[in-house]
UniProtKB/TrEMBL annotation:
Belongs to the ligand-gated ion channel (TC 1.A.9) family. The lineage of its organism: Eukaryota, Metazoa, Ecdysozoa, Nematoda, Chromadorea. Keywords: Cell membrane, Ion channel, Ion transport, Membrane, Signal, Transmembrane, Transmembrane helix, Transport. Residues 269-361 form the Neurotransmitter-gated ion-channel transmembrane domain. This is Neurotransmitter-gated ion-channel ligand-binding domain-containing protein. It is a multi-pass membrane protein. GO terms for cellular component: plasma membrane. It comes from the Eukaryota. PROSITE patterns: NEUROTR_ION_CHANNEL. Residues 43-260 form the Neurotransmitter-gated ion-channel ligand-binding domain. Gene3D superfamilies: Neurotransmitter-gated ion-channel ligand-binding domain, Neurotransmitter-gated ion-channel transmembrane domain. It comes from Diploscapter pachys. The chain crosses the membrane at residues 6-24, 263-285, 326-348, 421-440. Residues 355-374 are annotated as: Disordered.
Amino acid sequence: MGCLSTSWTSLPISLFLLLMFIIARQYALETEDEQINTMKLSEVLDKLINNATYDKRLRPNYGGKPVDVGITIHVSSISAVSEVDMDFTLDFYMRQTWQDPRLAFGEVDLGLPNKISSLTVGVDYLDKLWKPDTFFPNEKRSFFHVATTHNSFLRIDKDGTVYTSQRLTVTATCSMKLQLFPMDSQRCKLEIESYAYSTDEIAYYWCSRDNNNCTGIKKEEIELPSYAFDDRNICMNRTVFKNASGSYSRLIVTFIFDRESGFYMLQIFLPSGLVVVISWVSFWINRDSAPSRTIIGVMTILTETHLMTGTNRRLPPVSYIKAVDVYLGFSYLLVVLALIEYAFVAYTKKKNEDRKRKEKRMGGGSERRQPIQTPAAPDIVTDARLAECTCNSMPVSIIAVMQKKEKYCLRHSHIDIGSRFFFPLTFTIFNLLFWIILLAKAKRLPFFSDIEQFRCINFPFHDE
């Protein structure tokens, strides 16, 4: 009875130990299979770059047809568009694909349900392969992203097709035309080309040679503080660049930046217009108030000067005249003319006063020699003249008022009265002509909306 009890007690323990043995054995077999699979893949990778059959110094199909290299770009951000430095900076993923028959490995049978038809390996393996010497001809500076590791990708398909992807930040030159600033649109290009291989050895295509409907450029939602930018503002072209060393296949992506003018309207044009209007206040101030009118004239000139220097400080020193220069220059001219107008008014006032004093001296001498004749009846015209002359605080005699030469009393300046109409009318006409011409040249009037589809200029590709 005791032996039977002992056997029943040891049975669960035996079953548990058997189960653990089976699990351990299965794990060992799987680990062994994984090691075998890893060894098979390593053998495949080593055979692909065997020095006896593969030389990374030679391109695929050396001596034969050119290597077709497909390019796609995914723009993640545009961090800067600088008018002063004439460049723009963008962060993007550049993907390249080409076929190298020397890297074809067929399918690797690892005993799995699906055979492996592509190999995704570390980017270090790329250094052992031939790759296109792609560069950016209009690049000023660039760098690869390496946080937390080198942002690169490599995949090899069974037929030898190679896919690479790299994340870059590139600052490229952009020859900006600022004649229409701040209503301008800038066309900035990123050029892609082989550094050493001519069109006889490498041909670049967007996506691939056989995929003509491919969108080679994609982007995230990009917001720029000073420019409007959407999918219509990207153009792709393919061309051939020729120089003394040969002809080279080149891809060009053009980014069109439409400047948002709201900031400049509030910071430049509106203040400048208000300063011009303030300069007109002096036309309503008494011409005897020389300090008030002079201060207004000088302050408006200094303000316009500050606006002009502040605006040009944000822009490069170009040799041509910009639209903003025309507006600020005309505004500056008006405030200067307003100050000159008062100088002319003060001059005519002094000249009239000198003439009056001279005529008084001449009139005083003649009064002592001529008898005084009092008019028999009141003269309405004389009374009106008497009431109208208010510039002299001394009593005016009837005899002096009646004299014909005493008509030069100080009244409101006719120059001021004319300026009250001439200056506003001139500035209004200038604004109408300026904005109509500028908006028409910038193609921002409503009837220019139908030409958006022609913004991309296609450069013809010539096969040599």
